[in-house]
Each structure stands twice: as structure tokens, then as C-alpha cells.
Specification:
With 216 residues, the chain is an alpha/beta fold. It has 2 domains: 161 residues, SPOUT methyltransferase, trefoil knot domain (Alpha/beta knot), CATH 3.40.1280; 50 residues, Trp Operon Repressor, Chain A (Orthogonal Bundle), CATH 1.10.1270.20. Strand 5, helix 4 and strand 6 form a beta-alpha-beta unit. It is built from 7 helices and 9 strands; from the N terminus they run E-H-H-E-E-E-H-E-H-E-H-E-H-E-E-H. The strands form 3 sheets. A 5-stranded parallel sheet has the order 2-1-6-5-7, with helices on both faces. Strands 3-4 form a two-stranded antiparallel ribbon. Strands 8-9 form a two-stranded antiparallel ribbon. It binds S-adenosylmethionine. S-adenosylmethionine binds next to strand 5.
């Protein structure tokens, strides 16, 4: 699966996407991530990518020209839908991410907004879907794009090892959409709190039942 991320702050992605499961997924060829600097496409002689809003009001708006040219260039490399990360979009859920992870060989182009957002004409002309990661406003679309890459990637077959499978995680069909049971590891006693006896019993039928009863 190929992800192309369009941003004016490409360096933000250097650390998170180069660690742990995402790093391994890239190395194993399950996913590819390409980060593009929208500013590289501006025709403004001062390198500007934002301007004041028509109608007045606070803040700046990302101008359409660099966004449009960047999108057209990336679309040649990635046939997948263009998703604008936006608090106005539909909320990204586990169920939605599961569907997204099955989009075959197509990838995704993720557009990160800044300032007050992007010029509406880019949404009208180019955006296939607006997605929000929750009912709050962040400074930019970079964290939402990383959330999207993370949640979708871990649902692609092969990205997680058997010991890390997503099949029985919170919100999965196996847990009937519920949240996962509590986890414990060694030591058996910590600061006066004991690991539940059943989990130490070795009785797998009882452990399974305990876990089912402790999903919320
Ligand atoms: C400061 S926000 C703009 C908020 C916008 N003026 C509003 O009130 O809806 C700048 C950018 O951050 C991103 N963003 C902020 N919150 C988000 C969220 N909850 N989900 C997805 N993207 C978000 C979007 O790309 C947005 O264009």
C-alpha cells in the first residue's frame, strides 16, 4: 500500500514513521510512504502558500495553486483517493480503517491542512473524502495523517506478526466491537496489587471466559 502525504512541514514525519512497526512494514515492502512538500510547487516568488481569507476574519488560508499542482504531480504516481484530513470530515473509526486497508493495490493521498484550512475549491475539484480523527481542532493535518497511516497499516496482512495480531484488539469483530480486556505481565504482585488468579491458573477455558467478561 502506498501513502503519499502532502504537507508544508515534511520533517514532522521523519521520526514517527521511521520507528517500530511502521519502519518494519516499510522495510518488508508492505507499505511505502512518500512525503511531499507543498511549498516546492508554489509559483509565488516569495515561496508563499497562504493568503488572507476572502470575506475577512482571522487567520490565513492555504492557496489553491501550490496545492493543485502538488496534487496533480502526485496523482501520476498514486491512483488512490485523495483524503483531506479535516475536523469537518467524517470521523475515522476502526471499522472505516478496516475497509480502507482493503482498497487493493490502490494507495491513499493524504492532504494535511494548516492555518484556517485550505481553499474550498481544492476540496471541490480534487478531494475524494474529508476525514477527521476526532472532535477537536489540531494545529495541522500532519498528526491526523500519521494516525491514518498507522491505523490502516497495522490492518494490512503481514504488517503485524502473529504475536501482535490486530484480530482481537479493541473494536475488532472478534471482540464484537468492544474494548479489549485488561493486560498483566510479571511480576505477579506489584505495589500490593495482584494479577487475577485465573490468569495464572493455566486454565485456558477459564482465561478465555475471564477475558470475554472483562471486555467493555
Ligand atoms: C487549525 S486547523 C483548521 C481548523 C478549521 N479552521 C476549523 O475550524 O475547522 C488546521 C488543519 O489541521 C487539520 N486538522 C485539525 N484538526 C483536525 C482533526 N480533528 N482531524 C483531522 N484534521 C485536523 C486540518 O488539516 C486543518 O486544515
Amino acid at each position: 500500500m502506498r501513502f503519499d502525504i502532502l504537507t508544508i512541514f515534511p520533517n514532522i514525519f521523519d521520526s514517527y514513521l521511521n520507528e517500530s512497526i511502521i519502519k518494519r512494514a516499510i522495510e518488508a515492502g508492505h507499505i511505502e510512504i512518500h512525503v511531499h512538500n507543498i511549498r516546492d510547487y508554489t509559483k509565488d516568488k516569495h515561496g508563499k502558500v497562504d493568503d488572507i481569507p476572502y470575506g475577512g476574519g482571522p487567520g490565513m488560508v492555504m492557496t489553491p495553486q501550490p496545492l493543485y499542482d502538488c496534487i496533480q504531480a502526485v496523482k501520476k504516481e498514486n491512483p488512490g483517493p485523495l483524503i483531506y484530513m479535516s475536523p469537518r470530515g467524517k470521523t475515522l473509526t476502526q471499522a472505516k480503517a478496516t475497509k480502507m486497508a482493503k482498497n487493493g493495490n490502490k494507495g491513499f493521498i493524504l492532504l494535511c491542512g494548516r492555518y484556517e484550512g485550505i481553499d474550498q475549491r481544492i476540496i471541490d475539484l480534487c478531494v475524494d473524502e474529508e476525514l477527521s480523527i476526532g472532535k477537536y481542532v489540531l494545529t495541522g493535518g500532519e498528526l491526523p495523517a500519521m494516525v491514518f497511516v498507522d491505523v490502516v497499516s497495522r490492518l494490512i496482512p503481514g504488517v503485524l506478526g502473529d504475536d501482535e495480531s490486530s484480530a482481537e484488539e479493541s473494536f475488532s469483530p472478534a471482540l464484537k466491537g468492544k474494548k479489549e480486556y485488561p493486560h498483566y505481565t510479571r511480576p505477579a504482585s506489584f505495589k500490593g496489587l495482584e494479577v487475577p488468579e485465573i490468569l495464572r491458573s493455566g486454565d485456558h477455558t477459564k482465561i478465555k471466559k475471564w477475558r470475554e467478561n472483562n471486555c467493555s
